[in-house]
């Protein structure tokens, strides 16, 4: 499998492109910005986009999705519980002081356990509400890979002080849905450096304190 992860936009959201070497089909996860950079990576590997996946509808993860859809024809997919985030896209834009992006309802919902097809590397949606109501992680068991969005970070967890955030729900999502994955699962968070499930299970201070108080 081809995998390229690179930060896009002012908040340095990690955009990931997963592609199949044989069919040259790809998915793009969290195209928050930098269409030229995304197109350059696609061209470098001669990939065509079959699906756009959004881990959650925060502006830094979704802002360029509609534009990428118009260029590639690929559907934009995310969990419809985040329509509440789309409804306040103007507020989100004001947080960053940027123009309001063209963000639309998903072409297809991504509920828990949905499959995202990628030849030889099918991914499974894990619904992990907390950072936002519709936050999801994308798990590729065949590659021991988890794209975690803003749910779990190296040494930290997603913020829950924004509209729709719920700290208890976030911690529960991480404990019940992510820490049950194998220790050697590579975790690509929505921002910052990669980590692993085992490392976060042992060292993440937010998870340790949560488990000792509940
Ligand atoms: Zn976010």
Can you tell me the CATH architecture?
4-Layer Sandwich
Number of strands: 14
Q: Biggest β-sheet, characterized?
A: 6 strands, mixed
Q: Which cofactor or ligand species appear?
A: zinc ion
CATH superfamily: Ribonuclease Z/Hydroxyacylglutathione hydrolase-like
Unreliably modeled segments: 210-214
Rg calculated over all Cα atoms: 16 Å
Q: Helical stretch count? A: 8
Strand order of the largest sheet: 1-2-3-4-5-6
Could you say which structural class the secondary elements and strand pairing correspond to?
A: alpha/beta
CATH classification class: Alpha Beta
For this structure, the CATH topology is Metallo-beta-lactamase, Chain A
Number of domains: 1
Describe the structure concisely for a colleague.
The chain has helices spanning 35-44, 59-62, 65-72, 83-86, 89-96, 167-178, 197-203, 205-213, and strands at residues 2-8, 13-19, 25-29, 48-53, 76-78, 108-109, 115-116, 123-127, 136-140, 145-149, 152-153, 156-157, 186-189, 195-196. With 214 residues, the chain is an alpha/beta fold.
Description:
With 214 residues, this protein is an alpha/beta fold. Helix content is 29%, strand content 27%. It has helices at residues 35-44, 59-62, 65-72, 83-86, 89-96, 167-178, 197-203, 205-213, and strands at residues 2-8, 13-19, 25-29, 48-53, 76-78, 108-109, 115-116, 123-127, 136-140, 145-149, 152-153, 156-157, 186-189, 195-196. The strands form 3 sheets. It has a 6-stranded mixed sheet with strand order 1-2-3-4-5-6. The chain has a 6-stranded mixed sheet with strand order 7-8-9-10-13-14. Strands 11-12 form a two-stranded antiparallel sheet. The chain is globular and about 45 Å long. Bound molecules: zinc ion. Residues 56, 58, 131, 150 line the site of zinc ion (ZN).
């Amino acid at each position: 499998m081809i995998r390229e992860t690179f930060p896009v936009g002012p908040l340095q959201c990690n955009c990931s492109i997963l592609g199949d070497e044989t069919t040259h089909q790809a998915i793009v996860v969290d195209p928050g910005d930098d269409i030229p950079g995304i197109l350059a990576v696609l061209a470098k590997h001669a990939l065509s986009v079959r699906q756009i996946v959004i881990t959650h509808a925060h502006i830094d993860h979704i802002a360029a999705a509609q534009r990428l859809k118009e260029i590639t024809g690929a559907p934009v997919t995310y969990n419809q519980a985040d329509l509440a985030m789309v409804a306040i896209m103007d507020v989100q834009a004001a947080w960053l002081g940027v123009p309001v992006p063209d963000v639309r309802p998903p072409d297809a919902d991504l509920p828990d356990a949905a499959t995202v097809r990628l030849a030889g590397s099918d991914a499974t949606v894990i619904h992990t509400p907390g950072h936002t109501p519709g936050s999801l992680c994308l798990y590729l068991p065949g590659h021991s890979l988890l794209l975690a969005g803003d749910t779990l970070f190296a040494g930290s967890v997603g913020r829950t002080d924004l509209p729709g955030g719920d700290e208890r729900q976030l911690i529960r999502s991480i404990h019940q849905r992510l820490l049950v994955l194998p220790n050697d699962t590579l975790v690509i968070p929505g921002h910052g450096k990669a980590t692993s499930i085992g490392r976060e299970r042992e060292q993440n201070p937010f998870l340790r304190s949560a488990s000792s108080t509940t």
